[in-house]
Design goal:
heterodimer; A: mainly alpha; 5 helices; rod-shaped; B: mainly alpha; Rna Polymerase Sigma Factor, Chain: A; Arc Repressor Mutant, subunit A; 2 domains; about 0% strand; globular
Chain lengths: ~160, ~170
């Protein structure tokens, strides 16, 4: 019975999920190799044999050839781009074009407005300049008039 | 990805994917068909696939999702698979061989009677030898959730095997 102590310990750990992958391999190999076991271990033998044998299941031998044939026969199409998405991308292109045209129109309008504003500002500045010039002329005339009045006043006084 | 690279990186996964698909679909034909579909999809979407860090995990995830989808669509009870005959123990008499195979079929039936999520855990841990971390990543569960569910699965298996041993039935 002592011969199986290690396996019994591993088995207890296995049922409570405390075994690591290596210990689980030991259990599968042990049960696959040992034929004559005490009844308390024998009852689990076929479980581990089953798990061991399931690891060896393989695809049929001609699977690879069949797949390669399919791969080489069909054109390589991008899987994630379907017909629908081609159609969608077409509409996106039209939408993007329209958006671009609208943007250009908007900016052209804005540019025109700015040009008009600049012209208006320049006109106002010119007008103010003219007013200022005229005011200066008026001031000079007033100064001259005052000087003449002053001269007349002095002459009359004398 | 060129054909050679595809052969080197993806082809070696095919048996693993097949066993996983088989554990869900329980039909060799369907599982083989599904693996072919998965591999063709990967071949066709290789520009996308080249950006994937872990191709094994991605292929397993794809196989799981597609197999579960098929299972839902088919919504049918699948027939039992005959357990593969290995005849590893050559000294057995014909009668012993039959008994051996019957016991393996019984184990298979016990596993197939578990809920789908528990079957998947047995497949990934006890057959594919995946770590808890890998299983958690694949099934989108925490390691503690994986351990809790696997504990349940193993306890159910143990209980049923004990019943067979004690009473000769499930």
């Amino acid at each position: 019975m002592d011969n199986y102590k290690y396996i019994e310990e591993l088995l207890d750990k296995y049922w409570t999920c405390e075994t690591n992958l290596e210990e689980e391999t030991i259990l599968r190999e042990f049960f696959s190799q040992e034929q004559e076991l005490p009844a308390h271990l024998q009852q689990y033998r076929h479980l581990f044999i089953y798990l061991q044998e399931e690891q060896e299941i393989k695809l049929s031998a001609d699977f690879e050839a069949q797949l390669l044939e399919k791969i080489t026969a069909q054109p390589r199409t991008p899987h994630f781009v379907s017909r629908t998405s081609y159609r969608t991308s077409f509409f996106f292109k039209i939408a993007a074009g329209l958006l671009l045209l609208l943007s250009i129109g908007f900016f052209a309008q804005q540019h025109q407005k700015i040009q008009e504003q600049t012209a208006a500002r320049e006109t106002v500045i010119t007008a103010i300049g003219m007013i200022a010039e005229n005011l200066q002329q008026g001031e000079t005339m007033i100064d001259e008039g005052l000087k003449q009045l002053e001269t007349l006043y002095i002459n009359n006084k004398n | 990805m060129e054909l050679n690279e595809f052969k080197n990186r993806i082809f070696p996964l095919r048996d693993k994917l097949y066993r996983f698909a088989l554990s869900i679909l329980h039909s060799r034909e369907d599982a083989e068909d599904l693996v072919q579909e998965v591999l063709l999809k990967i071949w066709n979407a290789q520009s996308f696939f080249e950006r994937i860090d872990d191709p094994t995990a991605y292929c397993m995830m794809m196989t799981k999702n597609m197999a579960l989808d098929r299972l839902r669509q088919a919504n049918r009870k699948t027939p039992h698979l005959p357990v593969e005959q290995h005849d590893a123990i050559e000294e057995q008499t014909p009668l012993e061989k039959i008994q051996h195979r019957e016991r393996l079929q019984l184990v298979e039936r016990i596993i197939r009677q578990l809920p789908q999520n528990l079957q998947m855990l047995i497949q990934l841990r006890d057959i594919e030898g995946e770590s808890y971390q890998q299983i958690g990543h694949l099934l989108k569960l925490s390691e503690s959730q994986i351990k809790t569910n696997l504990f349940r699965a193993r306890q159910l298996l143990k209980q049923r095997l004990n019943n067979i041993h004690a009473y000769g039935q499930l």
